[in-house]
Records
---
Amino acid sequence: MPTETPFRNTSYSRPSLLGIVALAIAILISGAMIGAATAQDIATPVVDATPVVVDTACESTSLGVGAEPWIRTELYFGTRLPDGSELTADQWADFLDAEITPRFPDGLTVLEGYGQFLTSEGIIVGETSVVLIIFYPAEFVEDSSAALEEIRDVYETEFDQESVLRVDSEPVCVSF
């Protein structure tokens, strides 16, 4: 004789039992779907707002100032010459007038600093340096980049330099 357990109801027929199981599965699935939607709403809230359409990123970050996207490039010129002497102020001024200003007549900034670098022979050299900062419209990036490369090449050749460091920044917002 089979032993009865207090938790087992044997009065259900097989079709009824299958219906109960199917109903339980449907309830579990619908509960999981509702729970997932709630979790999604909490994790990534849906904002009911209409975005403002702007022509450029500068209009959204520098609203009302008439900013435009420009590129910032810095060139770092070493001033120590191969014979150990330093480039003179007159030599730099002549180079600036002859090579840089004609290529960027709209404006530029020159800063004097101190830097150091590791030579190709493995020697650390400290020297006075000149930092040239140029801003130019993003739409003229190809022509401006070519002009900057010409400046680097001329300086390296004329003053027998291993290199001129170039740093380009992502477009920045500029207004005048």
---
Amino acid sequence: MWSRRKKLKPARVDTVVGRNTVITGDVRFSGGLHLEGTVRGNLLAEDTSQDSILVLNQGALVEGDVRVPRVIINGAVEGDVYASVHVELAPHARIRGNLNYTLMEMAVGAEVNGSLVRQSEDPLRLEHLDVPTDKGRSDPERKKGLRQSGPGPEAALPESTTKDS
């Protein structure tokens, strides 16, 4: 069953933000970003291709929106997450905001306090569907065939199962 899954590219990390680091302001990056510290601002992938990835370690915190094609979260995000390709929520993931995703994996223990919004790769299509009508029968005639006539369900019971106590 699991062998049919599409294999994702391994995470290539170009930048590491350490555990005791606090960055104030938006962070724009390309390639891979591994975050163990805190970012007080938005995280934005410069190249919106499928190559950019963000990995949030346990204990990492982002106070802002995340717009990266591929995201692995095991830390906390206080803002909206936009993952156009894939998002993985590990057991310690905490998101306080909306999660916009195309493909999502969520482990037991992960939390999303907001809306889950699936972004389809297919464009929305509006269509008018013609619903066939049964012109030969009117509505009351159709309902008549469903009505029961005669005694209730008790009359169908054999004598041995009727209540004679």
---
Amino acid sequence: MKSMSYRDPRRPFLERAEDLRERLRHSKGDDDILAALEVDPVMHNMFYHFQQQMSCTWLQTDLPERHKQVAEFLAHVDDLTSVPPTEAFLRDAPVLAKWCAVHFGGYPHLFGQVSGHPRLGGQRFIATSPYFQIDPSRAWARTWSRFYVLGAYDESTVQRANGRRAIEEGVELIRLPV
């Protein structure tokens, strides 16, 4: 199985957010902002997803100008990459056992056996939404949608799933210091 490398695999979106911020420093209008976003299709897609999530909030107030929308998006990404969980978040978080970090579809994900997930129930193998920060030594991770408590690390989980074609082709392992 191939392996994917990130400058900081514990916070894989940090560098992308910094790159986008740098490109936006030179933007002068909506066209420049959209061009800056389109340079990185992953960040562009996440911005679109963020806009969808925020649409109800924005409709209740005035729809912010595009540069303010991007600023809110980057602040959200900053929170996802830097704010650690509280004890209460971890107490209610699903547990991901037999997990490893993988890259597919342009994003870093966690793959493992989940239990206590609010929508998926328990004891099934999942690929999480993209992860933004992970601290294996403290046994937690933050994805786009939630925190997870981490059980045992197991690279072979994704290799077995790949062999059974239970996960999409082209999955690359992300090596994390565990």
---
Amino acid sequence: MPATRVLCFVSLLLLFCTSAAFSADIPSKPSHSSEATFPKFSLYGAKTLAECAPILAAARSTLASLRSSYPADWTIDIACTDMEWQRILQMADQHKTNTAFSRLEKRHTIINGAIFRKFRSSYRRTLSHELGHILCNCASERVAEELAAKMEQ
């Protein structure tokens, strides 16, 4: 194996091994329904859970305010740093978004934690838009936007 390939392999190994992931599966229920539960959350790129805690709190609060719920067996992955978001985009071959994307077949939504530094209405739309994809079980941006608008009323 040429030295450049070894160096590349070691670099990738370090990148994947140094990226911390935290599961934030705290059982709780959103305020709008007594039966619905939050999806599972995984936080990536932070060295400690506390580093991403404000983002997680904002995500949970926003999900609780929507008229519909993410499925309980869904996972929301949050990239807590810009570097982690870029790494995830590259791994997923997703270059058309800077906010979020969903993998319906894997039951995952991946969110750029940086969106939570914007106005609440902005990240609320992102979360409801991705939920629109889940509810229609489709990749249609138009349908996802229509459903998002209804959920935000």
